[in-house]
Specification:
heterodimer, A: 299 residues, alpha+beta, five-stranded antiparallel beta sheet, 5 strands, 53% helix, 11% strand, B: 344 residues, 7 helices
Chain lengths: 299, 344
Protein backbone atom coordinates (compact mmCIF):
# COMPACT_ATOMS: atom_id res chain seq x y z
CA UNK A 1 0.00 0.00 0.00
CA UNK A 2 2.82 2.34 0.87
CA UNK A 3 4.14 1.72 -2.64
CA UNK A 4 1.08 3.30 -4.14
CA UNK A 5 1.35 6.51 -2.14
CA UNK A 6 3.59 9.24 -3.26
CA UNK A 7 5.53 11.39 -0.85
CA UNK A 8 3.00 14.12 -1.37
CA UNK A 9 0.20 11.84 -0.27
CA UNK A 10 2.09 10.78 2.80
CA UNK A 11 2.88 14.36 3.80
CA UNK A 12 -0.66 15.50 3.28
CA UNK A 13 -2.01 12.54 5.22
CA UNK A 14 0.41 13.17 8.04
CA UNK A 15 -0.37 16.85 8.15
CA UNK A 16 -4.11 16.35 8.23
CA UNK A 17 -3.83 13.61 10.78
CA UNK A 18 -1.79 15.85 13.06
CA UNK A 19 -4.26 18.69 12.61
CA UNK A 20 -7.24 16.47 13.29
CA UNK A 21 -5.65 15.05 16.39
CA UNK A 22 -4.76 18.52 17.58
CA UNK A 23 -8.26 19.82 16.90
CA UNK A 24 -9.97 16.94 18.59
CA UNK A 25 -7.78 17.14 21.61
CA UNK A 26 -8.28 20.91 21.84
CA UNK A 27 -12.02 20.60 21.58
CA UNK A 28 -12.20 17.69 23.96
CA UNK A 29 -9.70 18.66 26.59
CA UNK A 30 -8.69 22.26 26.43
CA UNK A 31 -11.63 24.35 25.29
CA UNK A 32 -14.09 23.26 28.01
CA UNK A 33 -11.50 23.88 30.66
CA UNK A 34 -10.65 27.26 29.22
CA UNK A 35 -14.31 28.21 29.29
CA UNK A 36 -14.57 26.98 32.83
CA UNK A 37 -11.49 28.93 33.69
CA UNK A 38 -12.85 32.14 32.22
CA UNK A 39 -16.19 31.70 33.92
CA UNK A 40 -14.59 30.87 37.23
CA UNK A 41 -12.30 33.85 37.02
CA UNK A 42 -15.20 36.11 36.08
CA UNK A 43 -17.23 34.76 38.98
CA UNK A 44 -14.37 35.24 41.39
CA UNK A 45 -13.83 38.73 40.06
CA UNK A 46 -17.50 39.52 40.42
CA UNK A 47 -17.62 38.21 43.96
CA UNK A 48 -14.57 40.17 44.91
CA UNK A 49 -15.58 43.44 43.35
CA UNK A 50 -19.33 43.42 43.51
CA UNK A 51 -20.15 41.23 46.46
CA UNK A 52 -17.53 42.24 48.97
CA UNK A 53 -15.65 38.96 48.55
CA UNK A 54 -12.26 40.20 49.62
CA UNK A 55 -10.44 39.64 52.83
CA UNK A 56 -10.14 43.36 53.40
CA UNK A 57 -13.81 44.03 52.99
CA UNK A 58 -14.84 41.09 55.11
CA UNK A 59 -12.51 42.15 57.88
CA UNK A 60 -13.68 45.72 57.61
CA UNK A 61 -17.28 44.62 57.85
CA UNK A 62 -16.52 42.50 60.88
CA UNK A 63 -15.07 45.58 62.45
CA UNK A 64 -18.29 47.34 61.45
CA UNK A 65 -20.17 44.74 63.43
CA UNK A 66 -18.17 45.57 66.49
CA UNK A 67 -18.73 49.23 65.84
CA UNK A 68 -22.45 48.65 65.45
CA UNK A 69 -22.49 46.73 68.71
CA UNK A 70 -20.72 49.58 70.41
CA UNK A 71 -23.15 52.02 68.84
CA UNK A 72 -26.05 49.93 70.04
CA UNK A 73 -24.70 50.01 73.55
CA UNK A 74 -24.13 53.74 73.27
CA UNK A 75 -27.58 54.41 71.87
CA UNK A 76 -29.13 52.30 74.57
CA UNK A 77 -27.16 54.13 77.23
CA UNK A 78 -28.05 57.52 75.76
CA UNK A 79 -31.67 56.58 75.59
CA UNK A 80 -31.63 55.36 79.17
CA UNK A 81 -30.13 58.65 80.17
CA UNK A 82 -32.61 60.69 78.13
CA UNK A 83 -35.47 58.57 79.33
CA UNK A 84 -34.42 58.98 82.94
CA UNK A 85 -34.10 62.69 82.36
CA UNK A 86 -37.34 63.41 80.58
CA UNK A 87 -39.69 60.48 80.87
CA UNK A 88 -41.88 59.94 83.88
CA UNK A 89 -42.52 56.58 85.44
CA UNK A 90 -46.05 55.76 84.42
CA UNK A 91 -47.73 53.79 87.20
CA UNK A 92 -48.60 50.70 85.25
CA UNK A 93 -49.89 47.92 87.46
CA UNK A 94 -50.20 44.23 86.81
CA UNK A 95 -53.51 44.51 85.01
CA UNK A 96 -55.22 47.15 82.98
CA UNK A 97 -58.03 47.39 85.47
CA UNK A 98 -55.66 47.96 88.36
CA UNK A 99 -53.82 50.56 86.31
CA UNK A 100 -56.92 52.36 85.21
CA UNK A 101 -57.53 54.67 88.18
CA UNK A 102 -53.88 55.66 88.27
CA UNK A 103 -53.69 56.30 84.55
CA UNK A 104 -56.98 58.13 84.48
CA UNK A 105 -55.55 60.59 86.97
CA UNK A 106 -52.58 61.50 84.79
CA UNK A 107 -54.29 64.39 82.94
CA UNK A 108 -55.11 66.09 86.23
CA UNK A 109 -51.60 65.55 87.55
CA UNK A 110 -49.96 66.88 84.42
CA UNK A 111 -52.30 69.83 84.08
CA UNK A 112 -51.72 71.01 87.62
CA UNK A 113 -48.01 70.35 87.47
CA UNK A 114 -47.65 72.39 84.31
CA UNK A 115 -49.55 75.29 85.79
CA UNK A 116 -47.28 75.24 88.81
CA UNK A 117 -44.19 74.93 86.58
CA UNK A 118 -45.19 78.15 84.92
CA UNK A 119 -46.22 79.88 88.11
CA UNK A 120 -42.88 79.17 89.73
CA UNK A 121 -41.28 81.24 87.02
CA UNK A 122 -42.94 84.42 88.16
CA UNK A 123 -39.81 85.09 90.12
CA UNK A 124 -37.85 84.79 86.92
CA UNK A 125 -39.88 87.39 85.13
CA UNK A 126 -42.28 85.15 83.24
CA UNK A 127 -45.89 84.51 84.01
CA UNK A 128 -48.81 82.89 82.32
CA UNK A 129 -51.16 85.27 80.59
CA UNK A 130 -54.56 85.41 82.21
CA UNK A 131 -56.70 82.51 81.12
CA UNK A 132 -53.89 80.24 80.11
CA UNK A 133 -54.61 76.81 81.48
CA UNK A 134 -53.47 73.35 80.59
CA UNK A 135 -56.53 71.33 79.87
CA UNK A 136 -55.96 67.70 79.00
CA UNK A 137 -58.66 65.43 77.64
CA UNK A 138 -59.22 62.28 79.59
CA UNK A 139 -58.23 58.86 78.40
CA UNK A 140 -60.94 56.67 76.97
CA UNK A 141 -63.00 55.07 79.68
CA UNK A 142 -61.86 51.64 78.64
CA UNK A 143 -59.27 50.05 80.93
CA UNK A 144 -58.01 47.95 78.06
CA UNK A 145 -56.99 51.10 76.28
CA UNK A 146 -54.08 51.13 78.69
CA UNK A 147 -52.68 48.03 77.02
CA UNK A 148 -51.93 50.08 73.94
CA UNK A 149 -50.47 52.97 75.86
CA UNK A 150 -46.89 52.82 74.60
CA UNK A 151 -46.80 56.57 74.23
CA UNK A 152 -48.80 59.48 75.54
CA UNK A 153 -49.09 62.93 74.08
CA UNK A 154 -50.38 65.74 76.24
CA UNK A 155 -52.68 67.47 75.65
CA UNK A 156 -53.50 65.33 72.60
CA UNK A 157 -51.82 63.92 69.54
CA UNK A 158 -53.45 66.41 67.23
CA UNK A 159 -53.62 69.63 69.16
CA UNK A 160 -50.97 71.19 71.36
CA UNK A 161 -51.57 73.73 74.05
CA UNK A 162 -51.38 77.31 72.99
CA UNK A 163 -49.53 79.18 75.66
CA UNK A 164 -49.17 82.90 76.09
CA UNK A 165 -46.76 84.21 78.65
CA UNK A 166 -45.85 87.69 79.71
CA UNK A 167 -42.21 88.44 80.29
CA UNK A 168 -40.55 91.34 81.93
CA UNK A 169 -37.69 91.30 79.49
CA UNK A 170 -36.49 89.68 76.32
CA UNK A 171 -33.83 87.78 78.22
CA UNK A 172 -36.39 86.48 80.67
CA UNK A 173 -38.46 85.18 77.81
CA UNK A 174 -35.50 83.54 76.10
CA UNK A 175 -34.46 81.96 79.38
CA UNK A 176 -38.00 80.69 79.76
CA UNK A 177 -37.85 79.07 76.33
CA UNK A 178 -34.52 77.45 77.16
CA UNK A 179 -35.95 75.99 80.33
CA UNK A 180 -38.05 73.52 78.36
CA UNK A 181 -34.94 71.51 77.63
CA UNK A 182 -33.23 71.98 80.92
CA UNK A 183 -35.82 72.17 83.62
CA UNK A 184 -38.91 70.40 82.45
CA UNK A 185 -37.85 66.96 83.62
CA UNK A 186 -39.66 63.71 84.22
CA UNK A 187 -42.85 64.86 82.57
CA UNK A 188 -42.24 63.92 78.97
CA UNK A 189 -40.28 65.60 76.24
CA UNK A 190 -41.63 69.09 75.70
CA UNK A 191 -41.74 70.44 72.17
CA UNK A 192 -42.52 74.07 71.54
CA UNK A 193 -43.50 75.43 68.20
CA UNK A 194 -44.46 78.65 66.47
CA UNK A 195 -42.96 80.93 69.05
CA UNK A 196 -44.05 84.51 68.47
CA UNK A 197 -43.03 87.60 70.35
CA UNK A 198 -44.83 90.89 70.55
CA UNK A 199 -44.90 94.01 72.61
CA UNK A 200 -42.02 95.52 74.46
CA UNK A 201 -40.42 95.01 77.80
CA UNK A 202 -41.60 94.96 80.48
CA UNK A 203 -44.79 93.81 78.82
CA UNK A 204 -43.28 91.43 76.35
CA UNK A 205 -45.67 88.75 75.26
CA UNK A 206 -44.60 85.36 74.01
CA UNK A 207 -46.96 82.91 72.41
CA UNK A 208 -46.19 79.38 71.41
CA UNK A 209 -47.57 75.91 71.13
CA UNK A 210 -46.52 73.26 73.57
CA UNK A 211 -46.91 69.51 73.61
CA UNK A 212 -45.48 66.89 75.92
CA UNK A 213 -44.49 63.54 74.47
CA UNK A 214 -44.24 60.73 76.96
CA UNK A 215 -42.64 57.41 76.10
CA UNK A 216 -43.17 55.22 79.14
CA UNK A 217 -40.00 53.42 80.19
CA UNK A 218 -42.03 50.36 81.14
CA UNK A 219 -44.48 48.39 79.10
CA UNK A 220 -48.16 48.65 79.83
CA UNK A 221 -50.02 45.59 81.10
CA UNK A 222 -51.55 43.24 78.59
CA UNK A 223 -55.14 43.57 77.54
CA UNK A 224 -57.58 41.95 79.93
CA UNK A 225 -59.96 39.83 77.92
CA UNK A 226 -62.32 39.57 80.85
CA UNK A 227 -63.15 43.24 80.58
CA UNK A 228 -66.19 43.67 78.41
CA UNK A 229 -66.36 42.57 74.84
CA UNK A 230 -63.85 44.25 72.63
CA UNK A 231 -66.23 44.06 69.73
CA UNK A 232 -68.99 45.79 71.59
CA UNK A 233 -66.70 48.37 72.98
CA UNK A 234 -65.25 49.22 69.67
CA UNK A 235 -68.53 49.33 67.94
CA UNK A 236 -69.77 51.96 70.27
CA UNK A 237 -67.22 54.59 69.40
CA UNK A 238 -67.61 55.00 65.69
CA UNK A 239 -71.31 54.51 66.01
CA UNK A 240 -71.55 57.45 68.24
CA UNK A 241 -69.30 59.36 65.96
CA UNK A 242 -71.93 59.05 63.34
CA UNK A 243 -74.46 60.15 65.83
CA UNK A 244 -72.60 63.32 66.43
CA UNK A 245 -73.16 64.69 69.87
CA UNK A 246 -73.88 61.38 71.37
CA UNK A 247 -70.28 60.42 71.30
CA UNK A 248 -70.09 60.40 75.04
CA UNK A 249 -72.81 57.92 75.45
CA UNK A 250 -71.20 55.77 72.87
CA UNK A 251 -68.01 55.73 74.76
CA UNK A 252 -69.65 54.79 77.96
CA UNK A 253 -71.98 52.24 76.64
CA UNK A 254 -69.38 50.85 74.36
CA UNK A 255 -67.08 50.25 77.22
CA UNK A 256 -69.69 48.60 79.29
CA UNK A 257 -70.52 46.38 76.41
CA UNK A 258 -74.19 46.95 76.85
CA UNK A 259 -74.82 48.44 73.53
CA UNK A 260 -73.50 46.09 71.01
CA UNK A 261 -74.00 48.26 68.03
CA UNK A 262 -74.88 51.77 67.19
CA UNK A 263 -78.47 52.59 67.80
CA UNK A 264 -78.95 54.06 64.40
CA UNK A 265 -77.72 50.96 62.76
CA UNK A 266 -74.52 52.56 61.79
CA UNK A 267 -71.88 50.03 61.34
CA UNK A 268 -69.37 49.81 64.06
CA UNK A 269 -66.71 50.38 61.53
CA UNK A 270 -63.32 48.93 61.52
CA UNK A 271 -63.05 49.49 65.22
CA UNK A 272 -59.48 49.54 66.19
CA UNK A 273 -58.82 50.54 69.71
CA UNK A 274 -61.65 52.13 71.48
CA UNK A 275 -59.70 55.28 72.14
CA UNK A 276 -58.58 56.12 68.71
CA UNK A 277 -61.84 55.19 67.16
CA UNK A 278 -63.58 57.46 69.53
CA UNK A 279 -61.20 60.24 68.90
CA UNK A 280 -61.78 59.95 65.20
CA UNK A 281 -65.46 60.03 65.72
CA UNK A 282 -65.16 63.10 67.82
CA UNK A 283 -63.83 65.15 65.00
CA UNK A 284 -66.81 64.72 62.80
CA UNK A 285 -69.42 63.74 65.20
CA UNK A 286 -68.97 66.24 67.88
CA UNK A 287 -66.22 65.20 70.17
CA UNK A 288 -63.98 62.53 71.41
CA UNK A 289 -65.37 59.98 73.69
CA UNK A 290 -64.58 61.51 77.02
CA UNK A 291 -64.92 65.10 76.07
CA UNK A 292 -67.67 64.47 73.65
CA UNK A 293 -69.55 62.81 76.37
CA UNK A 294 -69.05 65.70 78.62
CA UNK A 295 -70.10 68.12 75.98
CA UNK A 296 -73.16 66.15 75.24
CA UNK A 297 -74.08 66.01 78.85
CA UNK A 298 -73.67 69.70 79.27
CA UNK A 299 -75.74 70.45 76.32
CA UNK B 1 38.52 3.80 -6.54
CA UNK B 2 35.10 5.15 -6.23
CA UNK B 3 32.07 2.95 -5.81
CA UNK B 4 29.21 3.59 -8.11
CA UNK B 5 25.57 2.90 -7.18
CA UNK B 6 23.97 1.70 -10.28
CA UNK B 7 20.56 0.87 -8.70
CA UNK B 8 17.59 2.97 -9.85
CA UNK B 9 16.24 5.57 -7.30
CA UNK B 10 12.79 3.95 -6.83
CA UNK B 11 14.63 1.04 -5.12
CA UNK B 12 14.98 3.43 -2.10
CA UNK B 13 11.47 4.97 -2.23
CA UNK B 14 9.99 2.55 0.23
CA UNK B 15 12.63 3.32 2.76
CA UNK B 16 12.14 7.06 2.35
CA UNK B 17 8.36 6.78 2.64
CA UNK B 18 8.70 4.77 5.80
CA UNK B 19 10.91 7.46 7.20
CA UNK B 20 8.43 10.22 6.33
CA UNK B 21 5.59 8.24 7.83
CA UNK B 22 7.63 7.83 10.95
CA UNK B 23 8.30 11.52 11.07
CA UNK B 24 4.61 12.33 10.79
CA UNK B 25 3.76 9.76 13.39
CA UNK B 26 6.25 11.36 15.71
CA UNK B 27 4.79 14.75 14.91
CA UNK B 28 1.34 13.52 15.85
CA UNK B 29 2.63 12.14 19.10
CA UNK B 30 4.29 15.44 19.84
CA UNK B 31 1.06 17.26 19.12
CA UNK B 32 -0.76 14.98 21.51
CA UNK B 33 1.86 15.45 24.18
CA UNK B 34 1.87 19.23 23.72
CA UNK B 35 -1.87 19.51 23.88
CA UNK B 36 -2.03 17.24 26.89
CA UNK B 37 0.54 19.39 28.60
CA UNK B 38 -1.40 22.51 27.75
CA UNK B 39 -4.57 20.89 28.99
CA UNK B 40 -2.79 20.16 32.21
CA UNK B 41 -1.79 23.77 32.55
CA UNK B 42 -5.32 24.92 31.89
CA UNK B 43 -6.54 22.47 34.49
CA UNK B 44 -4.07 23.83 36.93
CA UNK B 45 -5.20 27.39 36.21
CA UNK B 46 -8.78 26.31 36.55
CA UNK B 47 -8.05 24.68 39.84
CA UNK B 48 -6.36 27.82 41.05
CA UNK B 49 -9.24 29.99 39.85
CA UNK B 50 -11.69 27.74 41.62
CA UNK B 51 -9.69 28.05 44.76
CA UNK B 52 -9.74 31.81 44.42
CA UNK B 53 -13.44 31.73 43.80
CA UNK B 54 -14.01 29.58 46.85
CA UNK B 55 -11.91 31.94 48.85
CA UNK B 56 -13.89 34.91 47.54
CA UNK B 57 -17.10 33.12 48.36
CA UNK B 58 -15.84 32.43 51.84
CA UNK B 59 -15.01 36.10 52.26
CA UNK B 60 -18.39 37.01 50.86
CA UNK B 61 -20.00 34.67 53.33
CA UNK B 62 -18.09 36.41 56.10
CA UNK B 63 -19.21 39.76 54.79
CA UNK B 64 -22.79 38.58 54.48
CA UNK B 65 -22.73 37.21 57.98
CA UNK B 66 -21.37 40.48 59.26
CA UNK B 67 -23.98 42.37 57.28
CA UNK B 68 -26.68 40.21 58.77
CA UNK B 69 -25.40 40.92 62.24
CA UNK B 70 -25.27 44.63 61.52
CA UNK B 71 -28.80 44.60 60.23
CA UNK B 72 -29.94 42.64 63.24
CA UNK B 73 -28.26 45.14 65.49
CA UNK B 74 -29.75 48.06 63.61
CA UNK B 75 -33.15 46.42 63.71
CA UNK B 76 -32.78 45.81 67.40
CA UNK B 77 -31.84 49.37 68.12
CA UNK B 78 -34.06 51.04 65.52
CA UNK B 79 -36.81 51.68 68.00
CA UNK B 80 -34.45 52.96 70.64
CA UNK B 81 -32.60 55.05 68.11
CA UNK B 82 -35.83 56.56 66.83
CA UNK B 83 -36.77 57.51 70.36
CA UNK B 84 -33.35 58.94 71.00
CA UNK B 85 -33.44 60.85 67.73
CA UNK B 86 -36.77 62.27 68.76
CA UNK B 87 -35.37 63.49 72.06
CA UNK B 88 -32.30 64.97 70.39
CA UNK B 89 -34.34 66.61 67.64
CA UNK B 90 -36.79 67.98 70.16
CA UNK B 91 -33.99 69.51 72.18
CA UNK B 92 -32.47 70.95 69.04
CA UNK B 93 -35.85 72.27 67.92
CA UNK B 94 -36.60 73.84 71.28
CA UNK B 95 -33.20 75.48 71.44
CA UNK B 96 -33.50 76.85 67.93
CA UNK B 97 -36.24 79.29 68.92
CA UNK B 98 -34.39 81.32 71.54
CA UNK B 99 -31.25 81.04 69.46
CA UNK B 100 -32.95 82.56 66.44
CA UNK B 101 -34.67 85.31 68.34
CA UNK B 102 -31.56 86.14 70.33
CA UNK B 103 -29.62 86.38 67.10
CA UNK B 104 -32.24 88.75 65.75
CA UNK B 105 -32.06 90.81 68.91
CA UNK B 106 -28.30 91.01 68.55
CA UNK B 107 -28.64 92.23 64.98
CA UNK B 108 -31.26 94.80 65.77
CA UNK B 109 -30.13 98.37 65.66
CA UNK B 110 -30.71 100.48 68.77
CA UNK B 111 -32.64 102.83 66.51
CA UNK B 112 -35.19 100.15 65.79
CA UNK B 113 -37.96 99.12 68.11
CA UNK B 114 -39.31 95.72 67.24
CA UNK B 115 -42.91 95.22 68.17
CA UNK B 116 -43.40 91.66 67.07
CA UNK B 117 -41.30 88.82 65.79
CA UNK B 118 -42.41 85.43 64.59
CA UNK B 119 -41.25 82.69 62.34
CA UNK B 120 -43.74 81.76 59.69
CA UNK B 121 -45.67 78.88 61.21
CA UNK B 122 -45.94 76.71 58.13
CA UNK B 123 -42.48 76.54 56.62
CA UNK B 124 -40.42 77.92 59.47
CA UNK B 125 -38.32 79.61 56.87
CA UNK B 126 -39.06 83.31 57.18
CA UNK B 127 -38.78 85.54 60.19
CA UNK B 128 -41.51 88.14 60.09
CA UNK B 129 -41.09 91.33 62.00
CA UNK B 130 -42.99 94.43 62.76
CA UNK B 131 -41.23 97.40 64.17
CA UNK B 132 -40.95 101.08 64.64
CA UNK B 133 -38.26 103.60 63.85
CA UNK B 134 -38.03 107.32 64.16
CA UNK B 135 -37.64 107.82 60.46
CA UNK B 136 -37.21 106.03 57.19
CA UNK B 137 -33.46 106.53 57.13
CA UNK B 138 -32.97 104.41 60.22
CA UNK B 139 -35.09 101.66 58.77
CA UNK B 140 -33.04 101.71 55.58
CA UNK B 141 -29.82 101.58 57.55
CA UNK B 142 -31.04 98.58 59.46
CA UNK B 143 -32.21 96.98 56.26
CA UNK B 144 -28.70 97.36 54.86
CA UNK B 145 -27.29 95.87 58.02
CA UNK B 146 -29.57 92.86 57.80
CA UNK B 147 -28.58 92.31 54.20
CA UNK B 148 -25.12 91.52 55.52
CA UNK B 149 -26.45 89.07 58.06
CA UNK B 150 -25.36 85.63 56.84
CA UNK B 151 -28.34 84.07 58.57
CA UNK B 152 -30.75 85.81 56.22
CA UNK B 153 -31.10 86.06 52.52
CA UNK B 154 -32.70 89.04 50.88
CA UNK B 155 -34.73 90.53 53.69
CA UNK B 156 -37.79 92.38 52.50
CA UNK B 157 -39.02 95.50 54.23
CA UNK B 158 -42.39 97.04 53.87
CA UNK B 159 -42.17 100.72 54.54
CA UNK B 160 -44.63 103.45 53.61
CA UNK B 161 -44.34 104.81 50.09
CA UNK B 162 -43.66 108.46 49.66
CA UNK B 163 -45.65 110.27 47.06
CA UNK B 164 -45.93 113.86 46.11
CA UNK B 165 -49.11 115.79 45.72
CA UNK B 166 -49.19 119.36 44.59
CA UNK B 167 -50.49 122.02 46.90
CA UNK B 168 -53.85 122.38 45.18
CA UNK B 169 -54.45 118.68 45.30
CA UNK B 170 -53.83 118.78 49.00
CA UNK B 171 -56.41 121.41 49.39
CA UNK B 172 -58.81 119.37 47.41
CA UNK B 173 -58.00 116.29 49.33
CA UNK B 174 -59.03 117.66 52.65
CA UNK B 175 -62.75 117.54 52.23
CA UNK B 176 -62.67 114.04 50.98
CA UNK B 177 -61.85 113.00 54.48
CA UNK B 178 -64.52 110.43 55.10
CA UNK B 179 -64.32 108.95 51.71
CA UNK B 180 -60.65 108.34 51.63
CA UNK B 181 -58.54 106.08 53.67
CA UNK B 182 -55.09 106.85 54.65
CA UNK B 183 -52.65 104.98 52.51
CA UNK B 184 -50.99 103.67 55.60
CA UNK B 185 -53.93 101.74 56.74
CA UNK B 186 -55.86 102.70 59.77
CA UNK B 187 -54.61 106.17 59.68
CA UNK B 188 -54.98 106.63 63.35
CA UNK B 189 -51.36 107.07 63.82
CA UNK B 190 -50.16 110.49 64.22
CA UNK B 191 -49.18 111.69 60.85
CA UNK B 192 -46.12 113.67 60.19
CA UNK B 193 -45.88 117.35 60.52
CA UNK B 194 -49.02 119.17 60.10
CA UNK B 195 -51.28 116.57 61.44
CA UNK B 196 -51.20 117.49 65.02
CA UNK B 197 -54.11 119.67 65.67
CA UNK B 198 -55.84 118.75 62.51
CA UNK B 199 -59.54 118.72 62.00
CA UNK B 200 -61.39 117.87 65.17
CA UNK B 201 -63.26 115.10 63.54
CA UNK B 202 -60.12 113.51 62.36
CA UNK B 203 -61.29 113.84 58.86
CA UNK B 204 -58.23 112.52 57.34
CA UNK B 205 -54.76 111.95 58.39
CA UNK B 206 -52.11 114.20 57.15
CA UNK B 207 -50.60 111.64 54.91
CA UNK B 208 -53.84 110.87 53.29
CA UNK B 209 -54.61 114.38 52.56
CA UNK B 210 -51.21 115.20 51.35
CA UNK B 211 -50.82 112.24 49.17
CA UNK B 212 -54.24 112.44 47.77
CA UNK B 213 -54.33 108.71 47.67
CA UNK B 214 -57.48 108.31 49.60
CA UNK B 215 -59.49 105.35 48.62
CA UNK B 216 -63.17 104.76 48.76
CA UNK B 217 -64.45 102.86 51.64
CA UNK B 218 -62.34 104.52 54.24
CA UNK B 219 -63.58 107.01 56.60
CA UNK B 220 -63.08 104.93 59.65
CA UNK B 221 -59.66 106.24 59.92
CA UNK B 222 -60.60 109.48 61.40
CA UNK B 223 -64.08 108.83 62.54
CA UNK B 224 -64.78 110.19 65.92
CA UNK B 225 -61.23 110.85 66.74
CA UNK B 226 -60.25 114.29 67.56
CA UNK B 227 -57.79 115.86 65.32
CA UNK B 228 -54.23 115.44 66.23
CA UNK B 229 -54.93 112.29 68.06
CA UNK B 230 -51.52 111.31 67.06
CA UNK B 231 -50.44 109.75 70.25
CA UNK B 232 -51.49 106.26 69.63
CA UNK B 233 -50.46 103.78 72.16
CA UNK B 234 -48.55 100.80 70.95
CA UNK B 235 -50.72 98.16 69.58
CA UNK B 236 -53.69 100.29 68.97
CA UNK B 237 -51.97 102.24 66.28
CA UNK B 238 -51.67 101.11 62.78
CA UNK B 239 -52.32 97.60 63.87
CA UNK B 240 -49.40 96.14 62.11
CA UNK B 241 -49.64 98.10 58.93
CA UNK B 242 -46.86 100.32 57.83
CA UNK B 243 -47.09 104.01 58.21
CA UNK B 244 -46.59 106.84 60.59
CA UNK B 245 -47.31 106.12 64.17
CA UNK B 246 -46.27 107.17 67.61
CA UNK B 247 -44.96 105.10 70.43
CA UNK B 248 -44.49 106.45 73.90
CA UNK B 249 -44.69 109.96 72.60
CA UNK B 250 -42.12 109.40 69.89
CA UNK B 251 -43.28 109.85 66.38
CA UNK B 252 -41.98 107.52 63.77
CA UNK B 253 -42.80 104.96 61.17
CA UNK B 254 -44.17 101.51 61.67
CA UNK B 255 -42.83 98.96 59.26
CA UNK B 256 -42.91 95.27 58.61
CA UNK B 257 -40.17 93.01 57.37
CA UNK B 258 -39.73 89.46 56.21
CA UNK B 259 -36.33 87.88 56.57
CA UNK B 260 -36.00 84.51 54.83
CA UNK B 261 -33.58 82.28 56.66
CA UNK B 262 -30.45 81.39 54.74
CA UNK B 263 -30.13 78.08 56.56
CA UNK B 264 -33.12 75.94 57.41
CA UNK B 265 -34.52 76.42 60.85
CA UNK B 266 -33.11 74.00 63.42
CA UNK B 267 -30.82 72.48 60.86
CA UNK B 268 -33.67 71.52 58.59
CA UNK B 269 -35.31 68.99 60.88
CA UNK B 270 -39.05 68.81 60.86
CA UNK B 271 -41.06 69.52 63.94
CA UNK B 272 -40.37 66.58 66.23
CA UNK B 273 -43.33 64.49 67.25
CA UNK B 274 -43.74 61.05 68.72
CA UNK B 275 -44.66 58.86 67.04
CA UNK B 276 -42.98 60.48 64.09
CA UNK B 277 -45.37 62.43 61.94
CA UNK B 278 -48.17 62.55 64.47
CA UNK B 279 -49.89 65.79 65.24
CA UNK B 280 -48.37 67.85 62.48
CA UNK B 281 -51.76 69.00 61.33
CA UNK B 282 -51.93 71.23 64.32
CA UNK B 283 -49.06 73.39 63.28
CA UNK B 284 -49.88 76.89 62.42
CA UNK B 285 -52.74 77.02 64.79
CA UNK B 286 -51.46 80.10 66.41
CA UNK B 287 -50.41 82.37 63.67
CA UNK B 288 -48.04 84.99 64.73
CA UNK B 289 -49.93 88.13 64.34
CA UNK B 290 -51.82 89.85 67.01
CA UNK B 291 -54.53 91.17 64.84
CA UNK B 292 -55.99 87.83 64.12
CA UNK B 293 -56.39 86.96 67.70
CA UNK B 294 -60.08 86.87 67.20
CA UNK B 295 -59.75 84.02 64.84
CA UNK B 296 -57.72 82.16 67.31
CA UNK B 297 -60.33 82.59 69.93
CA UNK B 298 -62.95 81.36 67.61
CA UNK B 299 -60.97 78.23 67.34
CA UNK B 300 -61.01 77.31 70.95
CA UNK B 301 -57.60 78.20 72.02
CA UNK B 302 -58.69 81.61 72.88
CA UNK B 303 -55.80 82.54 74.94
CA UNK B 304 -53.50 82.24 72.09
CA UNK B 305 -55.21 84.95 70.19
CA UNK B 306 -53.43 88.12 69.60
CA UNK B 307 -50.97 89.38 72.05
CA UNK B 308 -52.44 92.04 74.26
CA UNK B 309 -50.59 94.64 72.41
CA UNK B 310 -52.33 93.73 69.23
CA UNK B 311 -49.28 94.77 67.41
CA UNK B 312 -48.90 93.23 64.03
CA UNK B 313 -51.79 92.81 61.73
CA UNK B 314 -51.06 93.94 58.24
CA UNK B 315 -48.83 91.48 56.57
CA UNK B 316 -49.09 89.29 59.55
CA UNK B 317 -52.77 89.10 59.13
CA UNK B 318 -52.79 86.52 56.45
CA UNK B 319 -50.70 84.05 58.26
CA UNK B 320 -52.36 84.63 61.52
CA UNK B 321 -55.73 84.22 60.05
CA UNK B 322 -54.95 80.98 58.41
CA UNK B 323 -53.31 79.74 61.53
CA UNK B 324 -56.19 80.73 63.67
CA UNK B 325 -58.58 79.15 61.30
CA UNK B 326 -56.85 75.87 61.56
CA UNK B 327 -56.87 76.11 65.24
CA UNK B 328 -60.54 76.58 65.32
CA UNK B 329 -61.83 74.42 62.59
CA UNK B 330 -59.28 71.72 62.73
CA UNK B 331 -59.32 71.11 66.41
CA UNK B 332 -58.72 67.64 67.56
CA UNK B 333 -61.56 65.48 68.48
CA UNK B 334 -61.38 66.04 72.18
CA UNK B 335 -61.03 69.72 71.79
CA UNK B 336 -63.68 69.89 69.19
CA UNK B 337 -66.05 68.33 71.58
CA UNK B 338 -65.29 70.70 74.32
CA UNK B 339 -65.33 73.68 72.07
CA UNK B 340 -68.69 72.73 70.82
CA UNK B 341 -69.99 72.48 74.31
CA UNK B 342 -68.64 75.75 75.45
CA UNK B 343 -69.61 77.69 72.40
CA UNK B 344 -73.05 76.44 72.31
Amino acid sequence: MLNRLTMLHINLAGLFTALIIAGLLFLALIKPKQEDLQKTRADAQNIETQQHGTEAEASQHERDVKRAQQQQVAVEAQWQQASAEYMPRIPFQGTTLASYPLIADLPRQWGTWLASWYDVQRNQGVSRAPGVTFAIPGFPADPNYIASLNHITFPSETQPWTVTVEAKSFDDLMAHLRRFNTEMKHHGMPVINNVALSGQSPNLVGSYQLALYIIPPTKPPAEDIKIGSPGAGRAGGPGMGAMGMMGGYGAMTGRAGMMGGPPMGVSGGPGGRGGSAMSGGGMSGGGAAPRGGKAGAEE
Amino acid sequence: MQRINLLPPYIYDKKKKATVVGVWAAACVLVIIALAAYAGKVSSDLSQAQTEKQNAEAQKARWDAAEGKIQDIQKAMADTKAKLDFIQNAKKWNDAWPELYSMMRDWTSPDILLTSMALDPQQHSTLNLTGFAADERRIIQWWMLLENNPRFKQPIFNIPPRGYTPENAQTAGGPTGFGGRAPYGAGMGGPPPGMMGGPPMGMMSGYASMSGMGRPGGGFSGMGRPGGFGGVSPGTGSSGSVGPTEIEGRRGIAFTASCPLAQPFAGGITQPTWPAGAGRSATGAMGYGGMMGGMGMMGRAGMMGGPPMGMPGGPGGGSAMSGGGMSGGGAAAPRGGKAGASEE
